[in-house]
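Weekly modeling sync, notes
Attendees: S.R. (lead), two postdocs, one rotation student

Agenda item 3: backlog of single-chain predictions. S.R. asked that every request posted to the team notebook include the full sequence so nobody has to chase files. The rotation student volunteered to paste the first one in as an example of the format we agreed on. Action items at the bottom.

Example entry:
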Amino acid sequence: MKRDKIIYYIATGLLTALMLFSVNMYFFKHDDVSTMFAGFGYPVYIIYPYAVAKLLGLFAIWNPKFKIIKEWAYAGFFFAFTLAFFAHYMIGDGEQGGAIVAMVLLVVSYIFNKRNNK
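Predicted structure, as returned to the notebook:
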């Protein structure tokens, strides 16, 4: 059981660091992110709401009281990482590795969250 908690905290901590790096980019390097979003064909006005949604998702994942919202947060991150992978793949910029790493961390976090809460 202790091993499962350690794996959960490591995976969730690394996922959190990755998401906070992303949110930091969205808020403080808006011009670079706007160029990237425009390259994907996405509207740039979704950058700030997307950053806030990532922060709320992280809050839900770390808060043990929000069991149902935590499930939705995991699902939202799953879809976000899947779409990010395909967006990078389709434009051929070679940056889909970050989405793969995020997806692996998300799946490990989810599995070990379930194991710890049996």
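Discussion: group reviewed the output briefly. The mean pLDDT is 93.
Action items: rotation student to repeat for the remaining queue; S.R. to check formatting next week.
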